[in-house]
């Protein structure tokens, strides 16, 4: 997971989808205090997925409450280009759009970069890694391999997505690779052994008895794999 002088790092991004939305900002602060790096913000528009969650105005309030938060915005939306500017203005740190939602991926990436955010693409379970060309990857900061069908939290982890992750890691040693869906201390080892270094976990973090320990367990798994492969 290293290349040249730069190595990958473990990044733990609890999904706010599993938090109490009635006190969203304090829920985000709570997991940051317990060791989270980013907050994964699931934006659903009711079109790309059959569910509606939050939009840019909600993100803006969270950013106001926690100015140094890194909001990892997972855009499950039918028109990813439309929301780049509002999410950037709301304080988004990373903008992840779905490969399946557009034919003009470069246009969305250019818009994201223009607005100063990290750019990432998410792949649904049925979308193979082969759709991502080297040219596209060169413009990306991260690829998200979905380990559930997007649309709701608390679903069962799909181990059959691991070969896709492994394929991407073999092709791109330095790229941040994120897993999302059913990820937690029980499933993280499979993910890290297949090359993931960024873990999204909703239920497994917000529902944990000991949030700090859940985050630590996932970080240990990722860091252990990085150390093992590049000792
Ligand atoms: O993208 C998502 C759903 O579309 C969520 O981020 C994901 O499912 C996380 O929830 P959990 O960890 O509870 O499975």
UniProtKB/TrEMBL annotation:
Enzymatic reactions: D-ribulose 5-phosphate = D-xylulose 5-phosphate
Binding residues annotated for substrate, in chain numbering: 15, 74, 151-154, 182, 202-203
Matching Gene3D superfamilies: Aldolase class I
Note accompanying the cofactor annotation: Binds 1 divalent metal cation per subunit.
Residue numbers binding a divalent metal cation: 40, 42, 74, 180
Keyword terms: Carbohydrate metabolism, Cobalt, Isomerase, Manganese, Metal-binding, Zinc
Domain of life the protein comes from: Eukaryota
Secretion signal span: none
Molecular function in Gene Ontology: D-ribulose-phosphate 3-epimerase activity; metal ion binding
GO BP annotations listed: carbohydrate metabolic process; pentose-phosphate shunt
Enzyme kind, highest EC tier: isomerase
EC number(s) from the headed UniProt entry: 5.1.3.1
Record's keyword annotation contains Metal-binding: yes
Catalytic center residues: 42, 180
Pathway named in the protein's UniProt entry: Carbohydrate degradation; pentose phosphate pathway; D-xylulose 5-phosphate from D-ribulose 5-phosphate (non-oxidative stage): step 1/1
Cofactor(s), names only, from the UniProt record: Zn(2+); Co(2+); a divalent metal cation; Fe(2+)
One Pfam assignment: Ribul_P_3_epim
Family note: Belongs to the ribulose-phosphate 3-epimerase family.
HAMAP family associated with the record: RPE
UniProt protein name: Ribulose-phosphate 3-epimerase
Record organism: Wallemia mellicola
